[in-house]
UniProtKB/TrEMBL annotation, chains A, B:
Keyword Cytoplasm on entry: no
Identification of the protein by name: Cob(I)yrinic acid a,c-diamide adenosyltransferase
Molecular functions (GO terms): corrinoid adenosyltransferase activity
Gene: cobO
A Pfam family hit: CobA_CobO_BtuR
Source organism per UniProt: Streptomyces spirodelae
SUPFAM superfamilies: P-loop containing nucleoside triphosphate hydrolases
EC number from the UniProt entry: 2.5.1.17
Keyword entries, A-Z: Transferase
Organism ancestry: Bacteria, Bacillati, Actinomycetota, Actinomycetes, Kitasatosporales
Amino acid sequence: MPKGQPNVVPQDGLTTRQRRNRPLVAVHTGVGKGKSTAAFGLALRAWNQGWPIGVFQFVKSAKWKVGEERALKVLGDSGEGGSVTWHKMGEGWSWIQRNVQDGEMSSEAAAREGWEQVKRDLAAETYRLLVLDEFAYPMHWGWVDVEEVVAVLRDRPGTQHVVITGRNAPQQLIDAADLVTEMSKVKHPMDAGQKGQKGIEW
Amino acid sequence: MPKGQPNVVPQDGLTTRQRRNRPLVAVHTGVGKGKSTAAFGLALRAWNQGWPIGVFQFVKSAKWKVGEERALKVLGDSGEGGSVTWHKMGEGWSWIQRNVQDGEMSSEAAAREGWEQVKRDLAAETYRLLVLDEFAYPMHWGWVDVEEVVAVLRDRPGTQHVVITGRNAPQQLIDAADLVTEMSKVKHPMDAGQKGQKGIEW
């Protein structure tokens, strides 16, 4: 529901308009499907507003989410909405010198490199919507410090919305977020012996 | 997870490949956010596969989801992926003669008209992915007969995936669906007095 009355009116010294436009940290977690697809669906709205969008894909495989990536790149290049910049951990991150790959960066080091770039981009206000896809995992595994993430998000300048996806979002992140949705599996085709298929899973 | 091993291998006489490509009925339900955004995120994958996509928006307001609509239209018109056809109940459905509006069609009648068109398009195999956005409501309210929906979906020809969104999806639909995700609200900005904002809610 896009419209509605809030449940409480906080005593925060903000006007309704100021409060309405406060940037959000959103988290999509849980074991069900739809966490990333909903984040990319949200990116369509941001694109329509003309916002610069940065996607950071914190997964090892470079092949995941190729459909979303191609669609958002076509949208970004159309010149009719916001720009889209897509960063993939699975390809060793675009800003890292290629010769680093000679030494095969570990997933843990790669996730940390990704987070360092997110911090730089937040400080520089490069984007207005940041999708940190599957970023819950490196926090859950202790590769990236949750307390630092929460502090950096809390102190980020300007009007930057951040969406974080992934199972097992740490409680501290959930406590710090403005919008948290849990996707639960009620039923999945794999339970009935059906494997993933094109157009649906990728 | 796009890859993985199914929990069971059913004795259904199908090869793994046949079973894998069996068309799905997916339902996104629950009171949390992300039901529609995840459906439109899924449409990005279908678009990337070059599939014709039909969206039927079963909501009264013509203004909802303008971001998703514009993005998917730009994608459909890009010629780089599948086509996109977008039908809005809020504008009286495009296929209905405009003079019908003189008599102001009720939401109930409009929802029924939408379902009749979905039936025609399923029979004609017009699309390969159908997004029936907010279609759970007219079923929940008894405007459209759930048993008929389940039978039509069960008997649909060809390879047509159907995604249905909305709170309160009827149990019969859930029983008949292949993939059901419940979006639950863990936390929402409105709980803290923050109303919806552009780029996030629309």
